[in-house]
From TrEMBL:
<dbReference type="GO" id="GO:0004316">
    <property type="term" value="F:3-oxoacyl-[acyl-carrier-protein] reductase (NADPH) activity"/>
</dbReference>
<protein>
    <submittedName>
        <fullName>3-oxoacyl-[acyl-carrier-protein] reductase FabG</fullName>
        <ecNumber>1.1.1.100</ecNumber>
    </submittedName>
</protein>
<keyword id="KW-0560">Oxidoreductase</keyword>
<comment type="similarity">
    <text>Belongs to the short-chain dehydrogenases/reductases (SDR) family.</text>
</comment>
<dbReference type="Pfam" id="PF13561">
    <property type="entry name" value="adh_short_C2"/>
</dbReference>
<dbReference type="InterPro" id="IPR002347">
    <property type="entry name" value="SDR_fam"/>
</dbReference>
<dbReference type="InterPro" id="IPR036291">
    <property type="entry name" value="NAD(P)-bd_dom_sf"/>
</dbReference>
Length: 196
């Protein structure tokens, strides 16, 4: 594997363009794009500020748009290009949360964007989304004991691991996925189906 570390502010289109140009100079083209940058800062509706709203939309939606629009012209047009957008189970209507309104709304918009982009780029580039449930990362470090208990009462009885999500992302970004586009795959341990 030939990796290149590039840093970019996903919300800054010019910064994204510079980062993508650096990758294209080094590798000639981009076969797969996984958009996984994001933020989550739960707030009640009455406490939600415009800055909170903008921050969620910028990181969780506009950043994905910036990368997709900049990378797509550098992808192969033979059906082997892959875009995978990391959403969240909270982007699914039944899993939206009151205190996570900005997060849920941004991820729901990302799901819609993913499907629309798949329609536009098919059949040359396949576009799918992965909507993880609670995953043991720094993002959930401050999770309340009640929320943790709810997550652990999913059908699988536990919170997911980063490795489980990484393996699904690798699969979705690979040529093994050749007959699927415009899909949002939920990986939440059965949380959306209810408690055990």
């Amino acid at each position: 594997m030939n990796a290149l570390h590039v840093v970019a502010d996903v919300g800054d289109h010019d910064d994204v363009r510079s980062a993508v140009q650096e990758v294209v100079r080094a590798h000639g083209r981009i076969d797969s794009l996984v958009n996984c940058a994001g933020v989550a800062a739960p707030r009640a509706f009455a406490e939600l500020t415009r800055q909170d709203w903008d921050r969620h939309l910028t990181a969780n939606l506009i950043g994905v748009f910036n990368f997709c629009q900049t990378v797509a012209p550098h992808m192969p047009r033979d059906g082997s290009g892959r875009i995978v957008n990391v959403s969240s189970m909270r982007g699914n209507l039944s899993m939206a949360t009151a205190r996570g309104m900005a997060y849920s709304a941004s991820k729901a918009a990302l799901n819609s964007f993913t499907v629309a982009l798949a329609k536009e780029l098919a059949p040359e580039i396949l576009v799918n989304g992965l909507a993880p449930g609670l995953i043991e990362t720094d993002l959930i470090a401050g999770l309340s004991p009640l929320s943790r208990t709810e997550a652990e009462s999913s059908l699988l009885g536990r919170i997911g691991t980063p490795l489980e999500i990484a393996e699904m992302l690798i699969f979705l970004a690979s040529e093994k996925v050749s007959y699927m586009t415009g899909q949002i795959i939920t990986a939440d341990g059965g949380s959306e189906l209810g408690n055990r």
